[in-house]
Amino acid sequence: MMPKSKHLIEIILYVTAVFHCGIYAAVGANLNELPGHVPKVVSSLAPKGRVVATNELWLAIGLPLRDQAGLESFVAQISDPASPNFRHFLNREELTARFGPMEQDYELVKNFARSNGLAIAATHDNRLLLDVTGTAAAVEKAFHITLRTYRHPTEARDFFAPDTEPKVDAALPVVDIEGLSDFWLPHPKRVNSILAHDMPKNGTSPDGKGHLFGNDFRNAYVPGTTLTGAGQSVGLFELDGYITNDILNYARKAGNGRTNIIIETVLLDGYDGTPSTGADGGETEVEGDIEMVMAIAPGLTKIVSYEGGETGKHNDVLNAMLANSNVVNLSCSWGWGEPKATTDAIFESMAAVGQTFFNASGDSGAFTPGSNSVNGVDFPSNSSALNAPSSNPYITQVGGTTLSMNGAGVSWASEVVWNWGTNAQGIYDISSGYGASSGGISSYYSIPSWQTNISNVLGRGGSASFRNIPDVSANANYVYLICNNGNGDLYYGGTSYAAPLWAGFMALVNQQLAASGRPSAGFINPALYAIAAGSNYLSCFHDVTSGSNTWSSSPNLFYAANGYDLCTGLGTMNGTNLINALAAPIPAPSFLLPAPSAGGLTLTWITVAGNAYQLQYNSDLSTTNWINFGPVTNASGSTASVFDSFTNSQRFYRVLLKP
């Protein structure tokens, strides 16, 4: 740990909510059933056939955390300034040793796979995942299922899925299996449009169309800052690749040293990095993410693109992001389905090691609740347009706005909820250029304690019992991209572009923290909500109060309002005020008037909860021989006191802020 002599204050609430975790239900004397692998829609469909027995499948088997409750408690402590563990993050090895699956459990799952004809495709150091490959016949036998094919109810394709939930031996430490179905195809949370939506037309895009570009985002969200993200890296969750020349051309046109940013690629799950080009390809998403990050943080050391390809497993990509200790600013603009237990464990582990993860909330307007949701925020769901992990409580959910600027990209003018409207059937059809900022209420995750300070949450259509979405927002309208091999002539919008803006912004915060020798800010939701509950809310956030994300399936919810709302959360970042609030210097300790009493003197000084102080004394100010008086004091409040008996000699006192 670096010295804390220049540490910053963070206002963070103690996280006490207990979130749902993956469990398996006993279905017999020797077998456990693993829920959530059968799409709900299967019960209403007639199977077309069976998966060919020789077809190869790639599965990511998830193991349970060793101590789920202990990890929840630890994350709560590192988010609590009054705790001695405040911001004392674990490294990856410590995380695995304390909370990861045991080595012998990992070996059990390996032996299970091999004995059932499955080959080990990849292992993971934290033992949360084991990747295997095998034929459909071997998979069916191993997990006591039948893999059938069905016609997709909303997409022009067939899909496969088990007709019953998988089962494993009761002694086998497995919580879920990713890859047993392709009903839930991952999708980027962005919209391409040729429609004549209203647009600000006050950006500085090189094509002269007024789209927002490069320094426009810095001028809007961090005006006047000299922070550039220097020394920081940003990691991006991706399921496709990018074209190097597109990124280089954007960096050249945007200028300000952006061509110096290293773009590193981490290829996973057998993906070779070849992008799927075209207006609807995932390559547009990948390049948009990279370009938004460099737009707001032009001095980054590196942007790391973690790529699993179109058939990649999202847990494998997330776990690779968790494994990289040098990248603490993370973003995701993709949605998916399938079980949550292992995904939740990875996100919670990210919080434990000091990573900050931003996720695009989605582009389908207000979420409708429950397992029958038509636009799929929660698990399980029969929707094909799933938006997981948009309700996860261990990451920061980012909604979308339409940003207007003064002049041509000169300064922030105003923002409203991003909403491109619906088609003639009242649907946010993102494939046809319609969409809006997603938000709503989870029916799966309990409300986190840091979100319970929202004023009048019920009056805004939110919940006092379940997690509310989103947390914050940023521009999601008319961004200028160079993508698709230089052929990006569509209008681009979506919360896809809001999440990486926040990841780039967080790199500025962590740059300021690093400059004063302190660790990263880590999981920031408790801090964000605490700031919003204080007197500095409107100086730290642009409060978005106009617009809505209502639509035909949610005609009355939700509307923007003063303070928190379920369209844009707390609002957008308001420059250096929010940076300083998240990275404010800890004041030097100062003494209050001493209090004499019989036989001694009580010395009291001002503290910041969660920090450690050492009282010292000497009898001669001309010397440097200071003597520790008692042990280090761990502050739990705004002051600390120590009693010293009177002596016959004079004493001088000082107090030091300790690491």
Walk me through what this model shows:
Strands 14, 15, 16, 17, 19, 21, 22 and 25 form an 8-stranded mixed sheet that branches. Strands 6-7-5-11 form a 4-stranded antiparallel sheet, sandwiched between helices. 20% of the residues lie in helices and 25% in strands. β30 (595-597) and β31 (600-606) form a beta hairpin. The protein has 659 residues and is of the alpha+beta class. The radius of gyration is 26 Å and the shape is globular. The chain is built from 13 helices and 36 strands. Mean pLDDT is 88; it is low at 1-24.
Output the keywords:
eight-stranded mixed beta sheet; four-stranded antiparallel beta sheet; disordered N terminus; 659 residues; alpha+beta; 20% helix; single chain
Percent helix, as a range, is 10-25%
Helix count, DSSP H or I runs of 4 or more residues: 13
Major β-sheet profile: 8 strands, mixed
Shape summary: globular
Q: Which structural class do the helices and strands define?
A: alpha+beta
Q: Report Rg.
A: 26 Å
Uncertain stretches of 5 or more adjacent residues: 1-24
First-to-last CA distance: 7 Å
Number of strands: 36
Indicate the topology.
Blueprint: E1 8-9, E2 25-26, E3 31-33, E4 49-50, E5 56-62, H1 68-78, H2 92-99, H3 103-115, E6 119-123, E7 129-135, H4 136-143, E8 147-151, E9 158-162, E10 167-169, E11 176-178, E12 187-188, E13 191-193, H5 215-221, E14 233-238, H6 244-254, E15 262-267, H7 282-296, E16 302-307, H8 314-323, E17 329-332, E18 334-335, H9 341-353, E19 356-360, E20 364-366, E21 396-406, E22 411-417, E23 436-446, E24 466-469, E25 472-475, E26 491-493, H10 498-515, H11 525-533, H12 537-540, E27 541-542, E28 572-573, H13 575-582, E29 584-585, E30 595-597, E31 600-606, E32 612-618, E33 627-628, E34 633-634, E35 639-645, E36 652-658
Parallel strand pairs: 14-16, 14-17, 15-16, 17-19, 19-21, 20-23, 21-25
Antiparallel strand pairs: 1-29, 2-3, 3-10, 4-8, 5-7, 5-11, 6-7, 8-9, 12-18, 13-26, 21-22, 23-24, 27-28, 30-31, 31-35, 32-33, 32-34, 32-36
Helix pairs in contact: 1-9, 6-7, 7-10, 8-9
